[in-house]
Amino acid sequence: xxxxxxxxxxxxxxxxxxxxxxxxxxxxxxxxxxxxxxxxxxxxxxxxxxxxxxxxxxxxxxxxxxxxxxxxxxxxxxxxxxxxxxxxxxxxxxxxxxxxxxxxxxxxxxxxxxxxxxxxxxxxxxxxxxxxxxxxxxxxxxxxxxxxxxxxxxxxxxxxxxxxxxxxxxxxxxxxxxxxxxxxxxxxxxxxxxxxxxxxxxxxxxxxxxxxxxxxxxxxxxxxxxxxxxxxxxxxxxxxxxxxxxxxxxxxxxxxxxxxxxxxxxxxxxxxxxxxxxxxxxxxxxxxxxxxxxxxxxxxxxxxxxxxxxxxxxxxxxxxx
Length: 321
Hints:
By secondary structure, this protein is α+β, with helices and mostly antiparallel strands. The protein has 2 domains: 3-137, CATH 3.30.1330.10; 152-308, Phosphoribosyl-aminoimidazole Synthetase, Chain A, domain 2 (Alpha-Beta Complex). It is 35% helix and 25% strand. The chain contains 10 helices and 13 strands. It has helices spanning 3-10, 59-77, 95-111, 161-171, 177-188, 194-200, 214-225, 240-245, 248-257, 273-281, and strands at residues 21-23, 31-32, 38-48, 80-90, 115-123, 127-137, 152-155, 206-209, 228-232, 264-268, 288-294, 300-304, 307-308. The strands form 3 sheets. Strands 8-10-7-11-9-12-13 form a 7-stranded mixed beta sheet. A hairpin with a 7-residue loop joins strand 1 and strand 2. Helix 2 runs parallel beside helix 3 and helix 4 crosses helix 5. The chain is globular, with a radius of gyration of 20 Å. The mean pLDDT is 92.
């Protein structure tokens, strides 16, 4: 199968068709209509085999994952996902692999009402680049720079599961079949908090998705907002699978530093705290309050039942040893 046969079979004409797409796959560019009084949010991520995912990851899971991590960025800004373009580099044309990969991709795209409008296919080491777009009412975008002294710090769900799934495979950590299934589900099929991100608009002061680890990602918020923070490690939600597998003293690098969770971390004023929690629960999100914003210039303190906890190494960063 050649390049354009591949595009026609697996991408063109598949998935949803949005009314705001004037011209989709098949021309030099796609054409879309951005609603009046809205801003366009754009995010791009590249995932490389052996760096961002295991080479033998199930292809359907990979199709889901490559889009989910981009939708999570849009969610962190409070955007409604709309369109996506995909650059797919393949070592060769493996038809069963492509069928499963595109099934996973189209499933999550349809669930979030996102249309695939273009991209590119090339031959080379397995690499996937996704450019996702979304719309936000003008002036309503969440950023990392709005946290204020006194704001409460929340996360939308448990942290550390993806880390344990990865490290269990690398280091042979023993898992029960039930816990292995639960942890791999969280790593292979992350859930972007799209609805929660839109609920946060107008209520939260700052937000970020947890991709590089809690300590690293809240650090971005603190530096851009020019504030300090305290986090209570024992308030950070963790799954039963992680509790079953690791004693408390061994959990903190997974929970605080590893990343790949794709939960949202956000700050909210005291006056909005209860109302926002209640509103998120309507969408099935039981957000946990884990700390508070303090005066300062970008420093983080982590406490465990009132005692200072040494910060673990920060999350993964490219081009570092």
